[in-house]
Amino acid sequence: MADSNNYCTVSSIIPKLKGESNWSSWIVLMGATLRAHKVKKYVDSDVAEPAEGTPAHTSWEADRDVAYNLLIFSCDTLIDGLLNAGWQDDGNPYTLMKALEKYISKVSENAVGALVDEFAKGNAHDHRTLHDALKRARYLRACITSVCGENSDHFWAILLLNYFKVRLPDTYRHYINNKKPAWSDVVETIYTLAQAKEHKTGLALHCKTVPTTLTTSSSTTPVKNEDREVSSPCKKDHTAANSSTAAHPELVSHDNPSATGPERCLPARRNPLMVEDVPSHDELVSRRGLKRIQLLPHLTKGQGGVFEY
């Protein structure tokens, strides 16, 4: 059971509730304080009153008062706001806690002023992306509306444009100078710009991962054979020679500069009698100066036959 002496020793370190700004941390600290005094159950639930005149009633009343006093001292700066919001002082810590949970956003110290100040003087550059900034602006409007009620659409549109004035100057000038801005139109424009920005960022990141060799492939492409500069004796029938001799390496013309095989003195497996300018037998007999018939081991370029007389 809690007593007044224990309460006095810790009253100086009771966590103070400032409003919505420190509500989450206050809940944790206040819960620890109530548990230290073993009275947290009177805040968590509405404990029924025992029969009067019994020891249980005495204990219930004392512990309940300790819990109530701890809460009152922790939120003393918000009492007027609670009373104006509809809370009634009945000495019940459970009722007081429920009133704080319900009215905290309305009784927070300068809550409305702080929200409006952030919206009107804030900067979208405080957020990483346009989506984050737009989400914060919509949240601020919802909070202010819940406390103060609805306002004109033009009022909210001006606040939104001011919020993005530095980050989106062209959008700001467009709506301020050209027409009366509407909240939905401004939101749609900012959302579209946010989508385009994210797409551009993703594309730039993707391009950085492409190998650089792909970007220079056009400059390193080998020149095709038909595009090479060739000497005048080889220009005629050059393309035809390429197409007709591509089937077998032994049929590649030796006058073709595009031939990739080693230069050979004689065509492989050629029958001398098949050469068109070989003289006939009668012509050979009729030639008195004929001494021998010799198959030349080496032919010079442009020589018509294969016999020397």
UniProtKB/TrEMBL annotation:
It comes from Colletotrichum higginsianum (strain IMI 349063) (Crucifer anthracnose fungus). Residues 224-239 have a biased composition (Basic and acidic residues). It comes from the Eukaryota. Residues 214-223 have a biased composition (Low complexity). Residues 214-266 are annotated as: Disordered. This is Uncharacterized protein.
